[in-house]
Design brief:
Layout lengths: L1 H18 L9 E6 L5 E6 L4 E2 L3 E10 L2 E10 H6 L1 E7 L5 E8 L5 H11 L3
Antiparallel strand pairs: 1-2, 2-4, 3-4, 4-5, 5-6, 6-7
Length: about 120
């Protein structure tokens, strides 16, 4: 009986964890993307945006199921001007992880993130 009750409670807790965005401090993080299935959430860190002569960068927190990762995401100023190009994903220590195609107002997650980064500081 205790095992059954534990399984039911775990199921309810797991379901509620995916029914709404995870609790994050809204003074620090801004929700920018949520997957259709409610298992993945991406947040910009407020105040982390930086722009120099070559690119625009921001820190992003991603929560996938119950795992949290942090990345620095950047788009070159030229790609922002062109409204297409690459979104570059790096560690917080600026080690390259991967890049993805970006198209302003496109349907992909990378396009959504690229459009948001490029819209800051226009």
């Amino acid at each position: 009986m205790k095992v059954l009750l534990g399984c039911v409670l775990f199921s309810l807790v797991s379901f509620s964890a995916f029914a709404n965005p995870p609790l994050v401090d809204p003074n620090v993080w801004m929700l920018i993307n949520e997957s259709a299935d409610g298992h993945s959430f991406s947040y910009f860190k407020k105040g982390s945006f930086a722009k120099d002569g070559n690119s625009r960068r921001v820190i992003v927190q991603t929560i996938l199921d119950h795992s949290v990762t942090y990345q620095r995401i950047s788009v070159s100023n030229q790609d922002c001007q062109n409204k297409y190009g690459k979104v570059v994903f790096s560690t917080l220590q600026d080690r390259f992880l991967f890049e993805a195609d970006y198209l302003d107002r496109g349907s992909s997650t990378a396009s959504f993130i690229g459009t948001a980064i490029c819209s800051i500081g226009r």
